[in-house]
Write a structure and sequence with these properties.
Layout: H1 3-14, E1 18-23, H2 48-51, H3 54-59, H4 61-75, H5 82-90, E2 96-101, H6 107-110, E3 116-118, E4 121-128, E5 134-136, E6 154-158, H7 167-179, E7 182-186, H8 197-200, E8 208-212, E9 225-227, H9 231-246
Parallel strand pairs: 1-2, 1-7, 2-3, 7-8, 8-9
Antiparallel strand pairs: 4-5, 4-6
Helix pairs in contact: 1-9, 5-9
The structure holds ligand BV8.
Length: about 250
Amino acid sequence: MDDRELQRAAEFLAGASSLCVSTGAGMSVESGLDTFRGEDGLWSKVKIEEMATPEAFRRDPVKVWEWYRWRRARLASVEPHAGHRVLAQWESRVPDFTLVTQNIDGLHHRAGSRRVLELHGRLDVARCTYCDYSVQTLDDLGPEPACPVCMKRLRPAVVWFGEPLPEDALGAAFAAAARCDVMLVIGTSGVVQPAASLVELCRYNGTRVIEINPNATELSHLAKVCLRGGCRDTLVALDAAWQSLIT
Ligand code: BV8
């Protein structure tokens, strides 16, 4: 990682009055979870249209639930890392701080972040396909969980492709992206919409964008600073550089 670029990013953060952080699956790699795209990504093993759409669930609910049951079991065995904890600490360091995540793993909450806008739902929540029952647990709910209230099937409380994002979270995320003076984009390929367009907003309002990603992405051209490294160590180093500017 380039020290000069790290210093520049730290100066942007030290001067920020409104900071928006947007995270994707790369944020959780160092906790042991998979990304979606790239060599060993989840989509290299299963097809989106077979597993992550409402049509797929209608076609074969048992197969789709089994895939999420496997992901839930994996999530039960991982922990947030030091990078998650750094972001939780930054909530109180900036007057206006917003954390937006595409991730469904809940690791930001477990690391202590309190104000998290979750755009794609939560893997540790299952909800009824018919009534408004839901349950937050990573216990194994079995191969075909039924709602204890109305006996209909349960599904993962995530946003599938072709489903709308939660309006409140999306609205708040766009508002934060529109007003922030620094945007930090971490561990996302910038492929999935509408999440990726949060960063596009920064093109028009002079926001300074910092990207943390070992690889170039669809969003890199919008960034003033690209920190090419893993997010855990990069966030720890960035936090230290920022602290040395303000103490
Ligand atoms: C909607 C939950 C409308 C499920 C997810 C054509 C053009 C444009 C858009 C579309 C289109 N056709 C369809 C669409 C819309 C579609 C879409 O964007 N499709 C894509 C594939 C083109 N979007 C939707 O359908 C959305 N809904 O538009 O609804 C609507 C409105 C009203 C009424 C009805 C409908 C819904 C999108 C949400 C889908 N659900 N997840 C599940 O997880 O099972 S999205 C899924 O992808 C995950 O949530 C994930 O977060 C998200 C994005 O992926 P990334 O996070 O970026 O992860 P990725 O693997 O791609 O990249 C990881 C990055 O990490 C890499 O860059 C890598 O280099 C980096 N990395 C690796 N290691 C590290 C690291 N970084 C840092 N540190 C490391 N150590």
